[in-house]
Amino acid sequence: MLTKITGRRSIPGTELWVREISFKRNCLVMADTRNMEIMMPYKELVAAYIEICDERTGSIAHPDISEVTEELEGCLVLYDREYRCIRVHPAGEEKRAGAILKQLAIHVPYLFWDYMPWMDEGNQEEFFNIRQMVSAMRDVSGT
């Protein structure tokens, strides 16, 4: 089921146009179109999902994780432990957002894999609850 929203986000985000992504043992490494390398330790990630923007209408859709295929285009949205939002746009990358999300799930199985409307609204309390849940999953798994 696609969750569609319209309007603006209240949480500012960092936008990255990434030409290459690699999954290392402990971190995600991205090379952007300016040849800068960004390293994100897996332990800093809390949530991930895909966002699809309709350029014509401006509406944004968030496919459910069960609907994600490797061919799904869009933007990969990541949240770190400090509630910072990073939008990863595959640019010149052979992989699409769906393939990247699936590969991320293999390396970091303990993330929150869904979009919730409060994420764009800056609800610190809800985010704290998700962060605690992800931390508990890490502790149980020993990662």
Structure description:
With 143 residues, this protein is an alpha+beta fold. The protein contains three helices and eight strands. The protein has helices at 97-107, 118-121, 124-141; strands spanning 3-5, 13-23, 27-32, 37-41, 45-53, 60-62, 75-80, 85-90. The longest helix is centred in the last third of the chain and has 18 residues, at 124-141. The chain starts with a strand and ends with a helix.
Provide the fold topology.
Layout: E1 3-5, E2 13-23, E3 27-32, E4 37-41, E5 45-53, E6 60-62, E7 75-80, E8 85-90, H1 97-107, H2 118-121, H3 124-141
- Give a quick account of the main beta sheet: strands, pairing sense, barrel closure: 8 strands, mixed
Strand content: 25-35%
Shape: globular
Number of helices: 3
Helix content: 10-25%
Keywords:
23% helix, 8 strands, 143 residues, alpha+beta, eight-stranded mixed beta sheet
At a glance:
Helix content is 23%, strand content 34%. It contains three helices and eight strands. A hairpin with a 6-residue loop joins strand 5 and strand 6.
